[in-house]
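Lecture notes, part 5. Sequence design as translation. It can be helpful to think of inverse folding as translation between two languages: the language of shapes and the language of residues. The source text, in structure tokens, appears below.
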């Protein structure tokens, strides 16, 4: 089985021609499905873009959402809207709301949105403040002192859901591909060839998801785990353990592209 993988395509920043070119590239990749690891568009547009991709690429489209996909709305509202779209448009599969999918005997695909959960690095001392805090209603509605708590809650929820999904297939899996948006380890959080420092890590690493993955990999050394993520717009590969590897996708605003074609 071959799966085409793209991340951070930000179709709201791309011209119609650039979108069409990317869709044609996906078609020419002759794969059995498409994986999107978040930042597809923004809240008022993401369902439309997903439906448009599905109409053009009539094969399964497995996706998670990134922080930009919630811009202009709340997290819960956007997830409900996208879940409804995936229910109505058959090729779409929102992995955050789905049980693991067995693509080949013993090979599973699962996923979670993830979130920079303020547990890695130095949130209090960081001068970094993402647009998330102004553009996502959950953060805009509360005092800034509550921002790290909300970030941690999102990371905890993703980690809890993912842990249940992984445990559900542990008895039969030989290989698990995990799609997520936010890198789950600092070692996989790349920027211009370097990993995130203490100022950027709180916003670009989902430490709780990383803990779940590391524990599961140690308990099940015969299961090969490959994590696909994005968010940083800079690519890299991090070998976290003997059976745990993270691939981080590169991206450029306005230029959606294929990161790679995976073979299971």
């Amino acid at each position: 089985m071959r799966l085409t993988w793209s991340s951070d395509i930000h179709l709201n920043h791309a011209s119609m021609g650039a979108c069409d070119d990317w869709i044609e590239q996906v078609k020419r990749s002759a794969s059995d499905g498409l994986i999107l690891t978040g930042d597809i568009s923004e809240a008022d547009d993401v369902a439309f873009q997903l439906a448009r991709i599905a109409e053009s690429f009539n094969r399964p489209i497995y996706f998670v959402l990134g922080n930009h996909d919630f811009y202009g709305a709340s997290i819960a509202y956007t997830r409900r809207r996208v879940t409804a779209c995936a229910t109505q448009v058959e090729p779409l599969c929102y992995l955050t709301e789905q049980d693991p999918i067995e693509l080949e005997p013993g090979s599973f695909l699962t996923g979670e949105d993830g979130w920079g959960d303020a547990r890695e690095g130095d949130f209090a001392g960081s001068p970094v403040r993402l647009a998330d805090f102004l553009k996502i209603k959950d953060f805009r509605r509360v005092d800034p002192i509550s921002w790290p708590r909300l970030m941690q809650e999102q990371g905890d929820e993703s980690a809890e859901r993912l842990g249940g999904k992984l445990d559900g297939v542990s008895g039969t899996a030989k290989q698990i591909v995990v799609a997520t948006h936010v890198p789950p380890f600092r070692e996989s959080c790349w920027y211009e060839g370097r990993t995130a420092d203490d100022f950027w890590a709180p916003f670009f690493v989902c430490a709780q998801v990383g803990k779940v993955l590391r524990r599961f990999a140690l308990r099940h050394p015969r299961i090969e785990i490959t994590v696909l993520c994005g968010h940083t717009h800079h690519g890299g590969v991090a070998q976290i353990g003997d059976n745990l590897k993270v691939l981080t996708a590169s991206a450029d605003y306005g230029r959606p592209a294929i990161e790679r074609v995976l073979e299971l």
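The translated text above is only one of many valid answers, since several sequences can fold into similar shapes. The chain has eight helices and 13 strands.
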